[in-house]
Design goal:
Strand content: 15-25%
Strand order of the largest sheet: 1-2
Helix content: 25-40%
Order of helices and strands: EEHH
Mean pLDDT: 85
Number of domains: 1
Number of helices: 2
Length: 64
């Protein structure tokens, strides 16, 4: 099962749109280098996702 030359697909697209996404088939080693390069952005996104969520209950007050 452990292939020596494992491949992954990486897709890139501008955040502002305009151009189609481009995809590349690269080796797992190159993918790991990309992950190392964008590690600060990965950590930033994880912190954003860890923010506490709220419920809408506090916005709906019962009026009796």
């Amino acid at each position: 099962m452990g292939h020596k030359n494992q491949k992954v697909i990486v897709s890139l697209q501008s955040k502002s749109g305009g151009n189609e996404a481009v995809s590349f088939e690269i080796t797992k080693a190159k993918a790991n280098k990309i992950i190392d390069l964008i590690q600060p952005e990965i950590e930033k996104k994880r912190k954003e996702l860890r923010c506490t969520s709220i419920t809408l209950e506090r916005f709906y007050k019962e009026e009796n």
